[in-house]
Amino acid sequence: MSVGIDISDDGLARVTLRRGDAGNAIGLATARGLLDAALACQRADVRAVLLTGEGRSFCVGGDLREFARLDGAALEEHLIAVTDSLHEALRIFARLDAPMVAAVQGAVAGAGIGLAAAADVTLAADDASFTAAYTGIGYSPDAGVSWFLPRLVGPKRALDLLLTNRRIPAAEAEAIGLVSRTVAADLLTEEAARTAEALHRGPTAAVGATRRLVAAGLTSDLGPHLDREAGALAAAAASAEGREGVAAFLGKRAPDFARAPSLTSGT
Question: Which residues form a coiled coil (predicted)?
Fold first, then answer.
């Protein structure tokens, strides 16, 4: 399997790119594997997703060796099949209530940047490097890269990265907002797991509402967005999660959001 998916009993989904010997390059099998993983994460009990890649590099982008075996109409059809699966996986991950954490190391290029950018929290090893790579081989972006980059780093800097294909180190990626923060390479796995585990103990419905509000706010006028915030807040406060959170705060204890969905009205 080019993509592994393991969901713990308490709802932490671990999605792993398993083509480490090929830099976790994305071909048709890997794209379909990511879609299968995303579909599995739609389970109601999934509370957080941790995305990692085996080997030296998180993801070097598309599998050019696979693509080079085809040409003309056959290549076009193949790439449509790859992007159909990959893009549907990204759509599903974006719709989840469960937050996503990505841990990236080594080379992160092309579609690898899209996967890293799609996460809510992206941790980068301090020796990681990032390059768009697309136009360097005569390709244009996929995996949401042309959508994520302008929103994360601004349109001017996004075009710089996309057109020049310059390689940037992890420290610069953090400084411009491409990743959430950098971590010492030998601590990346531990810190990513700690972050995902902390998020998966959180209020999943409220996290999902927050994810959607942030995404909608990028293209919404203030007035309508304030209305969305008000409605979401009222629903969250009245939910089992909201009642548990307030009860825990007033009772000076840690909240147990995992059991909140089972709470009945009036508890």
Answer: none
On the question of pLDDT at 264 being above 70, the answer is: no
The Cα–Cα gap between 8 and 15 comes to 12
CA atoms within 13 A on the CB side of 28: 11
| Protein fold of 3-200 | 2-enoyl-CoA Hydratase; Chain A, domain 1 (3.90.226)
Beta-carbon count within 10 A of 196 CB: 27
pLDDT tens figures, 203-253: 999 999 999 999 999 889 999 999 999 999 999 999 999 999 999 999 999
* Residue 217 and residue 225 in contact, taking contact as beta carbons nearer than 8 Å: yes
Q: Give the relative orientation of helices 111-118 and 145-153 as an angle to the nearest 10 degrees.
A: 60
Task: Report, at the CATH architecture level, how domain 204-262 is classified.
Answer: Orthogonal Bundle (1.10)
Tokens 């990681």 map to which residue? 128
Domain residues of the chain, as ranges? 3-200, 204-262
| The token pair that represents 237 in the structure block | 């406060």
